[in-house]
């Protein structure tokens, strides 16, 4: 009896490797596109926070719409999260010629204000170049943070358009937002 000839097997290794490489290229391309979308979230100008220019200013310019309730995936500075003792997400970031300000929220939607008055990227040091406040509320204008020391209250009103600082003596200074 003759030995049967082996049945030819289909070759799938070659097409399988081609498909694997093709899927890897598509996945890498999609990852690259998604990773580069969203613009520049990193501040890149020299700024300062909470410093009064001594200028008297009228009421805020046209109020901006109420902040979007949609959570931002951008985290607040790590030092701000350490002071809050919890993870925070950025609700609003504004930079001016002298300041950068973050309004942050925790998982319970409690708000925090972080102001900074030196070039972005420098370490935030309270009472020198930064201020961290927990008395923050949303307003029709944007957000209001209060720094209370005894009977004296300094208010920081921030929107996507500007930062307004009102000192206890009633003097107001406006810093228009840049780069937005």
What report would you give on this structure?
The chain is an alpha+beta fold. The protein has a domain at 78-176. It has helices at 13-36, 78-84; strands spanning 89-95, 100-105, 111-116, 130-133, 136-138, 143-149, 152-158, 162-166, 172-176. Strands 5-6-7-8-9 form a five-stranded antiparallel sheet, with no helix packed on it.
Biggest beta sheet summary = 5 strands, antiparallel
General form: rod-shaped
Number of helices: 2
> Can you tell me the residue ranges where pLDDT is under 50 for at least 5 consecutive residues?
32-72
Alpha-beta content class? alpha+beta
Put the structure in a nutshell.
This protein is an alpha+beta fold and about 180 residues long.
Compile the SSE list and pairings:
Layout: H1 13-36, H2 78-84, E1 89-95, E2 100-105, E3 111-116, E4 130-133, E5 136-138, E6 143-149, E7 152-158, E8 162-166, E9 172-176
């Amino acid at each position: 009896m003759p030995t049967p000839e082996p049945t030819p097997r289909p070759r799938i290794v070659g097409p399988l490797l081609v498909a694997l490489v093709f899927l890897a290229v598509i996945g890498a391309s999609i990852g690259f596109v998604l990773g580069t979308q969203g613009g520049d979230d990193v501040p890149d100008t020299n700024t300062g926070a909470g410093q009064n220019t001594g200028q008297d200013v009228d009421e805020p310019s046209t109020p901006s719409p109420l902040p979007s309730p949609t959570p931002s995936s951008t985290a607040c500075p790590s030092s701000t999260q350490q002071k809050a003792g919890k993870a925070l997400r950025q609700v609003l970031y504004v930079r001016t010629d002298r300041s950068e300000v973050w309004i942050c929220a925790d998982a319970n939607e409690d708000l925090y204000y972080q102001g900074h008055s030196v070039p972005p990227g420098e370490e935030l040091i309270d009472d020198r170049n930064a201020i961290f406040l927990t008395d923050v509320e949303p307003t029709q204008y944007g957000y209001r943070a209060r720094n209370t020391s005894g009977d004296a209250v300094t208010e920081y009103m921030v929107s996507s358009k500007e930062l307004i600082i009102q000192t206890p003596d009633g003097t107001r200074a406006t810093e228009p937002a840049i780069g937005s």
